User: Fold these one by one.
Assistant:
Number 1:
Amino acid sequence: MSEFTFEKHAQDGRARTGVISTPRGEIRTPAFMPVGTAATVKAMLPGSVRETGADILLGNTYHLMLRPTAERIAALGGLHKFMNWERPILTDSGGFQVMSLAGLRKLTEEGVTFKSHIDGSKHALTPERSMEIQALLGSDIVMCFDECPALPADRGRIAQSMELSMRWAARSKVAFGDRPGHALFGIQQGGLEEDLRAQSAEALREIGFDGYAVGGLAVGEGQEAMFGCLDYAPEQLPEDKPRYLMGVGKPDDIVGAVARGIDMMDCVLPSRSGRTGQAFTRHGVVNIRNARHLDDPRPLDEACGCPACQNYSRAYLHHVTRSKEIIGSMLMTWHNLRYYQDLMAGMREAIAAGSFESWQRAFHAGRAQGDIDPL
Ligand SMILES: [Zn+2]
């Protein structure tokens, strides 16, 4: 079995492009990972997700452990087979969603006990159990079990939480064991405190991981504060391993993160927004539910190669979205995922060519221009 490796091909400023190799296929970086929460990227067939250009999906430990359960997925051949996606899958550790979704949580040194948001049943997650679940799922990139306070939080709380997460990172590494071809990523914490981020990075380096995530951002601090943190956090992490920014974000968040040395990202935004009629385009956000599209025969984004833009008018997308037809969710999700993947491909090319500065100027200029004029 081949190993998990990261090869950096080019760097332009702090932005990097390269390839992560896994036994299940290559991941071109910077990479955007569509979110397949409950073993599906909602409204998309796996083959269609691949057609948008995605090399890897994200699955959620919290959701899958509750329903249909990791043991059931393992008995059915693992998550790849279960959901018919043969390429790499990254799973989160469950920690973040226990904190944001579950009811009645209790946090101890050992781990977290909580009540399911589905049926109120009681569950426990520890670093060891999170590693066991992610192994049962057959995840290619496993995330350490961590804890992260919502921001703003006081420095004492952030420091305490970061130190607990570092002890859990060490336990995660032991529990993960030796699994050739599978990777374990550590997660840096420390809020917006540069010295706590540095301490966290140092603790993770000492344990040693296959990749490193910048955790605890995109939790309400705003873009300016997030970019402020990304001005130092990625560079505190090992230069020769992939760096993953969790749960980000809007297109301009993603571009700003890549410019600051991030290699991987995930977000529900393109798929979730698609289902509510919001499209991301080269000229900014378009709300297809708006009455101005009622009679518009033009494509959503004429530069886009997705089926929604190639085969349908704005008037049709408006109609099926307003009528809550299932195809509305399908086409709008496809478009948004394609837009995000085109964005990543554009950045990879520009970084490789050493023209990322001018690419970024064109990106911002296109968005500032706004949507095409109504007919
Ligand atoms: Zn499109």
Number 2:
Amino acid sequence: MDALLNLSIERPYSTRFRERWQGSHREAAVDLRALTYISSVDDNLNCPICQCPFVRPVMTKCDHIFCGDCLNTALKTSLTCPVDRRPLSLEGDDSEFMEQPDGGNPDIRLLRRLRKGGLVMDVPNAILNMVDELRVKCPNSAAGCKTETTRCNIQGHVNKDCGYVKVPCPSERCNLKIRRKDLGPHCLHGTVTCDACETEMIEADLRVCAEDRA
Ligand SMILES: [Zn+2]
Ligand SMILES: [Zn+2]
Ligand SMILES: [Zn+2]
Ligand SMILES: [Zn+2]
Ligand SMILES: [Zn+2]
């Protein structure tokens, strides 16, 4: 099935048509911190700042691990390790990287600079693998998706496979969206009356209505 899909993606349709048809356009980044984790998560895999399993983690020289974004944010107010308060600053003036009193954007090059100075480094691959392999529910589970997969596969599922992601209607004349699982050759945004509940709705919602009753 996957092989078939990949084959059809290679056909020389215009990108726009292909994207509409396949519904394989790029989705927004899944918020890994908002996911429901099915695996029980070892406490050592939770970031001490956001309390979620690490997202793109980094390790400090004092062996503490944080999500890169979490550490970066914490360093804007204090150039110390958020756990043990050991200094995380290099010689010279780091104040240019700190939060500006006028609310100006702190410099995101700080982590790179600390990395160069050996104060921040990559985490061991074993840790990355463990957070990648944590099992999560699809972010569209409330809408009905039953998919459970590893965290490193969830973005791919949402981008390519999740039937509950709303994708552009295949009709060039229609700017509405439709669940990927309901994609068909024509627009399903015309108004119809559902036989079962005798309510007017768009054609695409007939299936939703049937699923809700099931
Ligand atoms: Zn974090
Ligand atoms: Zn530390
Ligand atoms: Zn899904
Ligand atoms: Zn439509
Ligand atoms: Zn109905």
